[in-house]
């Protein structure tokens, strides 16, 4: 086989590999047709064992969503208004009619988040911290699902490189500390960034972003 043929074969293989690994592009036709300007983030459904997970997560989502160019209603105000309206249970809010939420707040769309996992699993010498989230945006005008995304991130602190008994003890102590006080916030922020900005599957730039209407090739 000549050098040129070999290079052609290698190039074709890499191209095929790239095609296989590339995530499928989402269908944004309905999203762009409705072109929401404001998004209401409602309390998250918590399927994890951490009762504080929804509060911690809500503190991470408003800023990156606003940075994508959308008006985001203050999450604490939203929770307070919903509670006053008899909708303090996140499950009831998610099961309800998006149109009612649109009338209540004047929002174009609603973002629903389900916390699938928010835990730290201890294995003596290492602890893995996991955040798994499902995001859905629905229109308040039609109730149609406009966008959906799923993210799961796992963080395992780097183990001590020191060998022998001292290294094992150091790893065990580090794992115990992580288990006792895991920091989920950086993982949640990273998950939000990936969900909202990844080309082909993220959220198109909103009307308050300079890229609004100019990112058709990416979304």
Explain what the structure shows.
By secondary structure, this protein is an alpha/beta fold. The protein has a domain of 131 residues: ABC-type transport auxiliary lipoprotein component (Rossmann fold), CATH 3.40.50. Helix content is 43%, strand content 21%. Strands 1, 2, 3, 4, 5 and 6 form a 6-stranded mixed β-sheet that branches. A hairpin with a 5-residue loop joins strand 5 and strand 6. The longest helix is centred in the N-terminal third of the chain and has 19 residues. It is globular. The protein starts with a helix and ends in a 22-residue tail after the last helix.
Short description:
43% of the residues lie in helices and 21% in strands.
Described by strand count, sense and barrel closure, the largest sheet is:
6 strands, mixed
Q: Return the CATH topology of the domain at 24-117 and 131-152 and 183-197.
A: Rossmann fold
Spans with pLDDT under 50 lasting ≥5 residues? 1-20, 164-181
Which superfamily, in CATH terms, is the homologous superfamily of the domain at 24-117 and 131-152 and 183-197?
Answer: ABC-type transport auxiliary lipoprotein component
Let me know the average pLDDT: 83
Strand content: 15-25%
Q: In terms of quaternary structure, what is this?
A: single chain
User: Helix/strand-derived class?
Assistant: alpha/beta
Q: From N to C, what is the helix and strand string?
A: HHEEHEHHHEEEHH
* CATH architecture identity of the domain at 24-117 and 131-152 and 183-197: 3-Layer(aba) Sandwich
Distance between the termini: 42 Å
β-strand number: 6
Considering DSSP H and I runs of 4 or more, what fraction of the residues is helical? 40-55%
Radius of gyration: 22 Å
CATH class of the domain at 24-117 and 131-152 and 183-197 equals Alpha Beta
Q: Please tell me what the overall shape is.
A: globular
């Amino acid at each position: 086989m000549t050098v040129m043929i070999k290079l052609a074969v290698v190039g074709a293989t890499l191209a095929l590999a790239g095609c296989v690994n590339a995530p499928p592009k989402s269908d944004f036709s309905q999203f762009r047709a409705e072109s929401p300007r404001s998004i209401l983030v409602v309390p998250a459904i918590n399927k994890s064992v951490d009762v504080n997970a929804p509060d911690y997560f809500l503190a991470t989502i408003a800023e990156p969503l606003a940075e994508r160019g959308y008006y985001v209603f203050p999450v604490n105000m939203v929770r307070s208004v919903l509670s006053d309206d008899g909708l303090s249970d996140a499950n009831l809010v998610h099961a309800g009619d998006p149109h009612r939420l649109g009338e209540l707040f004047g929002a174009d769309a609603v973002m629903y988040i389900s916390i699938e996992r928010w835990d730290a699993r201890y294995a003596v010498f290492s602890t893995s911290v996991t955040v798994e989230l499902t995001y859905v945006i629905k229109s308040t005008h039609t109730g149609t699902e406009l966008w959906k995304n799923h993210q799961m991130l796992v963080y395992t602190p780097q183990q001590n490189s020191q060998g022998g008994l001292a290294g094992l003890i150091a790893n065990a102590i580090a794992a115990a500390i992580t288990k006792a006080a895991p920091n989920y916030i950086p993982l949640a922020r990273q998950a939000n960034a990936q969900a909202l900005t990844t080309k082909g599957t993220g959220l198109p730039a909103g009307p308050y972003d300079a890229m609004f209407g100019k990112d058709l090739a990416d979304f």
